[in-house]
Write a structure and sequence with these properties.
Blueprint: E1 2-5, H1 40-53, E2 59-66, E3 71-80, H2 81-92, E4 99-108, E5 114-117, H3 124-132, H4 138-144, E6 160-163
Parallel strand pairs: 3-4
Antiparallel strand pairs: 1-4, 2-3, 5-6
Region (Disordered): 14-40
InterPro entries: Bact_Kbp (IPR052196), BON_dom (IPR007055), LysM (IPR018392), LysM_dom_sf (IPR036779)
Protein name: Peptidoglycan-binding protein LysM
Amino acid sequence: MGLFDFVKGIGKKNTAAAEPQQTPAATPQAPKAAPAEPSAQEMANKLLGHVKSLGLPITGLSISYNSTSDLATVRGQVKSQADREKIILAVGNIDHVAKVDDQLTVTNPEPESKFYTVKSGDTLSKISKEFYGDANQYNKIFEANRPLLKNADDIFPGQVLRIPA
């Protein structure tokens, strides 16, 4: 348990549920205003939906969000350290989140993974070479970050990844 820092404004946009439907092309539209910042409750609901959509095993999941400090607090119980870390990363790698307060409990404690913040020009092979001395071990990092990553090229600068021992 603890507090994890992320880069606010870098994470993936989690706005699909809040986007309005397109109007027919024949209807004249006023210029679009900048989207309003989500309320704390809207953000908490989006984060909760995002974590649930990943299908990670967790009981008693609850997420609260403080818009003043951009802090998301995650509570619940997971069986493994890997699931705990994936949930923290799933929440922290979303736009608007700068910190994640981990209040998750782990049934079967294991050693923690290292976390790595992706830099411009990074690939999983390059990161693998840095941590394991072998670029061909990139799949180990990819698998450790599934279902957060859909493919090995699905990384972006500022994103935080799990690096298993």
